[in-house]
UniProtKB/TrEMBL annotation:
Organism classification: Bacteria, Pseudomonadati, Bacteroidota, Cytophagia, Cytophagales
Entry protein name: SDR family oxidoreductase
A Pfam family it matches: adh_short_C2
InterPro entries: NAD(P)-bd_dom_sf, SDR_fam
NCBIfam families to which the protein is assigned, alphabetical: PRK08628.1
Signal peptide: none
Organism of provenance: Algoriphagus pacificus
Amino acid sequence: MNLNLQDKVILISGGAKGIGGAISLGLIEEGAIPIIIDPSEEEGVKILEKAPLKSLQIPIRLSDPSDSQKAVELAFEKFGRIDGLVNNAGANDSIGLENGSPGAFAESVSKNLFHYYHLAHYALPYLKKSKGAIVNISSKTAVTGQGGTSGYTAAKGAQLSLTREWAVELLKYQIRVNAVIPAEVYTPLYQNWIQTFENPEQKLADITKNIPLGNRMTTPEEIAAMTIFLLSEKASHITGQHLFVDGGYTHLDRSL
Ligand code: NAP
């Protein structure tokens, strides 16, 4: 299947590592131009080496609206178009009801959610021209809960709502907006999280035995494949959808 992504310019927040890194690499394989918005320069360089002329890293940690504005403007200045946006940067920071505070909750929601809006807002004029696509990377925790992580789940749930809201608002521009929902993907972030348990190997085994399809973790490349398909014209009649890429972990019978 030719996805026709050749020379398409795609912004990816958190595009240097983990899921975002796999999306950037997958886009390079398709001949597209990933714009990696991520402070991790060492990891970004390894990706850029695969396509030095047809990729760009903007090494910033998105926070204020001006960060997103700057990233969008830099991408447009260099490549003259923007065809897609993958909102992906985020981290489960365990700010709960009992173990949190109003200030920490606000900060967690802000860190995980606001730049999704900022990037979409500033990229919109260019996406209107290209009839581009947006993919929001959310999380299974938005629909199942996890416990002890109110800020993160509030942000992840809001990303799913915004996917529907933006899909409706942007119908008139033929801009499609979808969400991909990972559950258990072995990334640097996940590796750090699993190490917080007393027996990380046992914890990992307990989790994977409950993943129905193959009793294994989802790979970052499997999340990237769905994301890249949704960015492409082959997904031309898909919008406002929440796509679970999780080996059946969220919905299938746990006794399987
Ligand atoms: P990861 O391994 O930590 O990679 C994320 C990358 O994004 C890192 O390079 C990180 O840099 C960067 N980043 C974080 N905040 C940023 C910001 N504000 N601006 C720019 N870059 C930023 O994480 P991942 O596991 O691939 O997760 C990617 C997305 O998938 C997140 O939204 C996460 O919630 C979601 N997700 C992941 C899983 C999973 O099992 N891994 C499950 C459900 C949902 P630093 O390392 O320097 O912070």
